[in-house]
Amino acid sequence: MSEGKKSTIITTGLAMFSMFFGAGNVVFPLALGQYSQGNTLFAVLGLLITAVGVPFMGLIAMTLFDGNYKHFFDRIGKTPGFLVAVFIMGLIGPLGALPRCIALSYSTLQLYFPEMSASIFSMVSCLIIFAFTFKKNSILDVLGNILTPVLLFSLGFIIVKGLFVSPAMPVSDVPQLDIFLKGLKDGYQTMDLIGAFFFSSIVLDCLKTESHALANSTGKKNDKLIIKMALKASMIGALLLSLVYIGFSFVAAFHSENLGNIDQDKLIGTIAIQVLGPFAGVAACIAVALACLTTAIALAAVFAEFIHNDISKKRIGYIPALVGTLIVTYFISTLNFMGIAKLLVPILQVCYPGLIVLSLLNIAFKLHHFKPVKIPVLIAFLAALMGYFL
Predict the structure, then answer these.
(1) pLDDT along the chain (390 residues), means of 10
(2) How far is Cα 154 from Cα 282, in angstroms, rounded to an integer?
(3) Residue 385 CB coordination number (10 Å)
(4) Which of 142, 190, 215, 376 has a 20 to 30 A CA-CA distance from 266?
């Protein structure tokens, strides 16, 4: 493997981790550990399926469609596919995941700065996001080379210290199967499968640049090379996400008796204070801010590009679209994290199983030419079946 190819795979894998790891990825593993206590292993197994395996399955599915979400969703029909794309873009954009990132950052920092204004914090956050996204071609380098190493160090420090000073694990009286199913459901709240449908274009742009260079030097076709590079980069991103989820869940489980009825959005700051002390606890604030910032950067860029290319057909420029995205984000983000989460939970429980089924069917279509005649009906049936058992 050439040095350039290896470097591209590592950078892309780190960027995948950064783009996926946002507000929900901080909160829900901690809340799951707080709830499951001695049965955390079963909770983590469920979480890893829907919060790691499913999103990266979606990313690979999109790679098979060359990152073209139009072709991906057109499998259920052009008009329904477009409407589904608009709907889920709103969820990961200014109506859901994007303002949720800012809201969580505010909730955590508020533990240290109780007088801080939510509106001012949201405004400053939007300006920072704009500064990182107004030049689209620099996004991946910033995420992969600068922000991710700092984020990983901060998260790793909290996890290692939290486990090192942990008390005895409390015993849980909740049935193990119930905890496993809760882990599966909580994985929906990360919204990473939805993000994967649109992050894939950013990832593939980077991989294509390297694969084209290799193809020009060797004379070989680069389609399979792109898929192989995407798989290897996905393994890096998935491994990092898994390690953080496992670490966060067990830290919260060990310290659950000291967490009481702490709100979910306050867990990371509270745990940091308990295990690191009031001064070193600022590392938690840095970790959350970086996690939310890296994901918000990707979300803002992807949604603005969606408005620019698909909604307005390039009648609205990328910069005006980005400004409009951040204005809406600002107002939604002034709601607290729990308020945004309550709006998203019922929506995700309905649409997530359908998106999982669509991803599986599209992979089968690309790899084995699977062509069911009534794909919307099949998706609805299998999604309802999944929802019934979960």
Answers:
(1) 70 78 84 91 94 90 85 85 88 91 86 84 91 66 62 79 82 89 91 84 71 55 72 87 92 85 82 72 70 79 88 90 95 89 86 86 80 57 54
(2) 10
(3) 12
(4) 142
Tokens of 364: 């089968």
d(CA 215, CA 87): 38
269, 281 Cβ separation under 8 angstroms: yes
Which residues, at least 6 apart from 265, have a Cβ–Cβ distance to it below 8 Å? 27, 103, 104, 107, 108, 336, 337, 338
Of 332, 289, 329, 296, nearest in space to 112 by CA: 289
pLDDT at residue 163, as a whole number = 85
> Which pair of tokens denotes residue 330?
């600002």
- As given in the structure block, the two tokens for residue 188 are 């929906």
Q: Which two tokens stand for residue 175?
A: 């049935």
Question: Beta-strand (E) ranges in 95-238?
Answer: none
Nearest partner of 265 among 341, 328, 331, 330, judged by Cα: 341
Please name which of 70, 252, 93, 74 lies closest in space to residue 167, comparing C-alpha atoms.
252
Q: How many other C-beta atoms are found inside a 10 Å radius of the C-beta of residue 390? A: 15
At 1 the pLDDT is 54
119-123, long-range: CB within 8 Å, 24+ apart, which pairs?
119/334, 122/330, 122/333, 122/334, 123/330
